[in-house]
Amino acid sequence: MSEYDEICLEYFLKHQLQLFDEKVAKNPEEAEEFLEDCMAVVCQDIQEVRAYFEEEGADITQMSNEDLEEASEVFPLPDGRYLVVEA
To answer: Which of 30, 33, 36, 46 reaches 20 to 30 Å from 1, CA-CA?
Structure first.
């Protein structure tokens, strides 16, 4: 089973233009394939998002949690989790 559930896929489909100039997926299957190719991650909370970026070597020490939530590659899911998609 994929880590990208229906909530992740639908939210990404509706909000993908926050990160990309044009749509990269038209349906949940394409969204799932794209997220897998990008190795997008689902984080349980904003602290996990921060830990992910720190692990990746991003300099986010000056960013508040609100700044992180507003980053174009961070998709705050309706259930409180976060989808992180690095283009």
So the answer is: 46
